[in-house]
Design goal:
The protein has 2 domains: 72 residues; 59 residues, no CATH class. Helix 1 runs antiparallel to helix 2. The chain has 150 residues and is α+β, with helices and mostly antiparallel strands. It is elongated. The chain is built from 3 helices and 6 strands, in the order H-H-E-E-E-E-H-E-E. A hairpin with a 2-residue loop joins strand 3 and strand 4. Strands 3-4-2-1-6-5 form a 6-stranded mixed β-sheet. It is 48% helix and 23% strand.
C-alpha cells in the first residue's frame, strides 16, 4: 500500500502527463494539417492555412514546455520525508480543506478524501508554506486553522 503522499504525487504526475500527451497530440495534428494543406489557385489561402497551423503548433509547444516545467518541479519534490512545517511535498489538513503542496493541479482524491494540489507560489500556497499545526491565517475572507502537517 502506498502512502498518502505517494498517491497524491502520482496523481499529480498523471495530471502533467495527460497535459503533455494532449499537447504532443495537438502538435502532431497541426503538423499533419499543414502537410496535407495543398496549394490551391488562391495562393493566399494556402499561406493562411500554413500560418494558422504554425501558430497552433507554437501554442501547443508552449503548453508542452509549461507541462515539462511542472514535471521537473514534481521530480524535485521529496515524498518520503516527514516534516512538521509545511513545505513542497507536504500534506496540510486544515479546517477548510486538505492541501498537497506541489503543483497547481486542482482537486485530487486519495484515501476517500479530497485534496487540492497547489503550488507553494500560489497565494494560498504562500500562506501555507512554513505553517505548523495550530497555526491560523485568513485567506479570501475565510479563517484557516492548520490541523495537521504530514
Amino acid at each position: 500500500m502506498s502512502t498518502l503522499k505517494e498517491q497524491l504525487h502520482q496523481q499529480c504526475v498523471h495530471y502533467v502527463q495527460q497535459r503533455m500527451d494532449a499537447a504532443q497530440q495537438a502538435i502532431a495534428e497541426a503538423q499533419q494539417a499543414a502537410n496535407n494543406d495543398t496549394k490551391s489557385s488562391a495562393g493566399d489561402k494556402y499561406e493562411t492555412g500554413r500560418e494558422m497551423a504554425q501558430q497552433e503548433t507554437n501554442r501547443n509547444l508552449t503548453q508542452l514546455n509549461e507541462a515539462n516545467k511542472l514535471m521537473v518541479a514534481l521530480n524535485r519534490i521529496g515524498i518520503n520525508g516527514r516534516s512538521t512545517t509545511a513545505e513542497a511535498g507536504s500534506v496540510v489538513k486544515t479546517n477548510q480543506g486538505n492541501f498537497y503542496l506541489s503543483i497547481s493541479a486542482g482537486n485530487i482524491k486519495a484515501d476517500n478524501e479530497v485534496y487540492v494540489a497547489i503550488s507553494t507560489a500560489s497565494p494560498i500556497g504562500l500562506k501555507l508554506k512554513g505553517a505548523k499545526a495550530d497555526d491560523q491565517f485568513d485567506f479570501n475572507g475565510k479563517s484557516y486553522i492548520v490541523l495537521k502537517v504530514l
